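User: Last request for today: this protein with zinc ion, please.
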Amino acid sequence: MRRNRIIRAFAFVAGAMLLSAPAWPEGDGTRVVLLGTGTPLPDPVRQGPALAIVVNDSSYLVDCGTGCVRQMAKAVQDLGISALQYTQIAGVFFTHLHSDHTLGYPDLMLTLWDIQNQPLPVYGPEGIIEMTDAILQAYEADITVRTEGFQQSDPTTLRPKVTVIGEGEIFSDDNVMVTAFRVPHGTCCPVSYGFKFVTSDRTIVISGDPSKSEEVAKQARRADVLIHEVYSAKKYESASDTFRQYLRSFHTSATELAEVANKAKPGMLILTHQLGTDECDTRGLADEVRKAGYRGKISNGNDLDVFWVFTEHRPRRASASSRRAE
Ligand SMILES: [Zn+2]
Ligand SMILES: [Zn+2]
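Assistant: Here's the final one, the structure of the complex with zinc ion:
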């Protein structure tokens, strides 16, 4: 049974690694890999919200939207980031439990099952245990077939090791210390967090999905990078009253983000969870933030962009695109 499992795991990982081509830039240091920079909209070029902080040989996932698992495989295969192999995940951290941030969670849990030799460590707000149990229950028939049939999957590694988080330090190991802080996000879920990752060489702050937040500005003060969600202020102008109310209480406009980022003064501002003027058109967002008075370094994040020492690194595949760091 064990041999079968090892072969399956090897075939899977080897498949993902087979074409790993471009050399990962040499040198040590913390890297940020954007796995998905979209919103709930089914944007064909942006997967659901997810990113990875990569330190040494370990990766730390923040949220797991649609496509998260396939994007990790792509990062291993196309970008040569071996720390994004499934066995190297040291923790999965959910900012909140909105569906766009968690749709990849069942995929992550069930896809990893045969590859991991220990349960996946998951950290999330109140409700994460119930969500995990409900997913396992939803797939009960499949799980029975896989554990009791010829596949002989190991039931002891299936259920993630789930920790419910609150404010303050939620995780630390040799690579990172992770702090959670509450952010306003309408009536969500019921709690929503942002995260600060401190490594030996970098401080990275991730906003989650807040409306304009003084707390984000405070946490990101002098951070190396602030990764922040944003919606177009132009879109707001043309929205209905109800949608305006929703945007104001749940999210941060480009104008508001300029204010937050001017207070925080991060080394670099990376836009994610981007809601542009016209459905999936997000090209003008960085300009909107600049026109609103932000003078710092800014980048429109795109799926599978990699940031390293916080000058942008666009690998060969992505550098064919004409977009540059903005
Ligand atoms: Zn949300
Ligand atoms: Zn969201």
